[in-house]
Amino acid sequence: MNYFKHKKNKGYRFPSQQITETLSKLPNIPINLDLNQNIELLKSAYTDCSDVVFREFTIGARTKAALIYIDGLSNTQEIDQQVLMPLVQLESFDPGTSIENVSKKLAVSDVLVIHTITDVIKQISIGNPVILINNKIKGISIGLPKWEKRGIEDPVAESVIRGPREGFVETLRVNTSLLRRKIRHPALKMKQMTIGKFTETQVIIAYIDGIASNTLIKEVTNRLERIEIDGILESGYIEEMIEDDPFSPFPQVLSTERPDVAASSLLEGRVVILIDGTPFTLIAPCTFASLLQAPEDYYNRFLISTFIRWLRYLFFFIALLAPSAYVAILTYHQEMVPASLLLTIAQSREQIPFPALIEAFIMEITFEALREAGIRLPKQVGAAVSIVGALVIGQAATTAGLVSSAMVMVVAITGVASFLLPRYAAGIAIRMLRFPIMILSGILGLLGVMLGIIAIVVHLCTIRSFGVPYLNSMAPLKIHNLKDVLIRAPWWAMNTLPESSSTELGNLHRQPHDQKPDPSKGGD
Amino acid sequence: MIEKGKISSFQMALIMYAVVVATAILYIPFITAQQAKRDLWLSPLWAALSGFLIVLIITKLYKLYPKKTLVEYSELILGRTFGKIIGFIFLFFLLYDTAIAFREYGEFVESAFLHKTPIVVVTGGIALTCAFAVHGGIEVLGRSATVFLPIVLVLYVMIYLFLIPDLNVKNIFPIMEDGWIPSVKGSLAPHAWLSQFSLLSFLLPLLSDETKAMKWSILSVIVSVLTMVYINLGNIFLFGGIITNTQFPVFQAARYISIGSFFEHVESIVIAVWVLGGFVQLSAFFYMLVLGTSQWLKLPSYKPIILPFGFLIILFSIWSASSFQEMIHSMGTTTPFYFISIQLLIPMLLLCVAVFRKKLRQAK
Questions:
Q1: Do A444 and B136 touch (CB under 8 A)?
Q2: pTM here?
Q3: Please, is B286 exposed, middle or buried when counting C-beta atoms within 10 Å of its C-beta (0-12, 13-18, 19+)?
Q4: Which residue ranges run through the membrane (chain B) (predicted)?
Q5: Which helix (H) or strand (E) holds A46?
Q6: What is the tens place of the pLDDT at every residue in B185-198?
Q7: Chain B neighbors of A444, CB-CB under 8 A
């Protein structure tokens, strides 16, 4: 500890002492010639860290050396066989051998020579064991990290009937490999950075060079570099730190756990941000239209996809407006309902004590609560909740005379409609916006509904995502881009990239124009 | 410049279309019918003349004073004092124009549904929404126009498509029974509406593609006129002689829609969709008013005066007419002269002086 105190007086400080600094900003203390001093120094940094292992051994019987790693982060079996064994069994060892030559003796592919104690700490913390040798001012970091990880599974939140079944996992390297397996071209770049004072989370910015615009890449990098936070545990942390309008209910960065979605975004010139420790990656920029595009749209045949997309648009409006339209029509515009239907509704509402607005509010809030409970509860209890929910929302409420059966229908349709939105974050936004519109419709009828819609559209016109207008290709109108908004154009007609991302490089061509299949092109 | 955003000529054309047509389709058929009788569909064609004339004058002025609005170049043309006075007159007129538009919108919604709601609630509600859009700037206006106007256009077309079984084409005969004078008399109100193209002056400096400005402005005038003709034709086919007694013919027409005895009484939906067009119109007026005022007062930003002007507009909308009948009456008689004298004569005067000055300078 003497050395440590001595150094401290000189201004050197260590993670346990100076917790306000990130690892990368620590002073660069060079590795000392004396092995014992180095170990002292490291041990002082790792005081009370029971998971750090210091294994001292000798090379060629005389030269002292030490292996340092964190238990559980490194592959000990491999270290024993490929590193310790050859070094310990070495008959004679010339103390003058350079560290580079030592590293050549190791049967490990990923070996790095390091110069400072800070690097030692960094390498250990990401799972690379480090070897320090006496009388050497360099160390060797060995790329043998290994920890327990989840296998690649079907992405739960974005399931498809047709399409790849693999999803991102919590390990960054696995995720980058999944992307690289889809896009093999060297133009796929992956810039790495570390964010988080304590978590030291590795973050990768992936983009395709030449498709993604440089301003976009620069903007994303700048925004990520600006982040100063103690820890990143999920991509949500980063999303909130980089979005354009923090007070908007709409997501301005897409998140996905599907490698195929990430890859297709890359091909469209967007930037993908991969974060260690979470299967959810971020995609920027995001437009309103992309919230309503499901991955499967691109795997099914285009006619079917177009139909399903229109269905989704229709139900988007139903999810947003059905309860408020019901309230408005029943309160202000009864003449719009055909007479026979009006009689049925009036009959079912005869004994209901509440006005339509209150009725709608009670039911919508109950429904939201049940849905939230269904997500949180353990699976065993979940079934009970759904039974109770079905009874509460459906039968019991109507027979008790609390709500009309028509209202139950409306709530049910709204509920189904909100599940049609492929992006969960967009679904939440719509669920939230439903309530203010309901109040407006209770006050001003259909006029109130329209005022609500206008306010939402104006808001959507205002926000941008990384410089791209949120309603891009609808407003400002770009006819060419509507091929992936209004319809899902067949792949042989998707000739150009969406302008949203590749603005500065012009409208890049994706493929030649004559891709339409035709018997005359078959050759026989 | 106060406004940093840019719009395309196409968006400008859409905004101008909304400015003219949104309230025009409510009131034009009734007001023109008073004079023109069954020749009411000819009246907008006469009015097209003032539309074209104003577009020509305004674009000519803009060429002489690029990147300037009417409020700004009136000072350059007439000198500071007179320029300020002309600017004030124009802005005061614009305030009145905006207020009248809000009143028209409010009266329509009142009489169609919400009979018991105070008109201030209706106009105040839309004023707040407009203020939200105006706060976003011209880009937001341009984009919301591209979102909303196609929907509104489809609605205009649909109303009369659904009514095809009830339309009687023979209603327009005999054409020009009393010569062309009645239709010219009836064109007074359309003249007033189309003279609002003078407001183009506020949008021209904000264009990203100025070369197309002329083309799109003229196109906007043509489409506005055609829409009026279409609506008037539809109404005369549907109502025939009783058109002179129908206050909101388009709204009345929507009541006739009945498809398969299930899809009927859709007038509330028609109004609801019409509100989208009304919104674009009102927020465009609102925007030009605050932009012009802040240019006149040389303010660094128009944002602080949005809400005060919202209040002022609501007040003026109440003051502008004591009753609905009075408003309609004045729109057929005095208001057009007010509109035309300000919106046609002022730009004309400015252009004359500007050209004269230019000649004088060249002579030297």
A1: no
A2: 0.88
A3: buried
A4: 12-33, 45-65, 77-96, 116-134, 146-164, 188-207, 219-243, 269-293, 305-324, 336-356
A5: none
A6: 888 888 888 888 99
A7: 114, 117, 121-122, 125
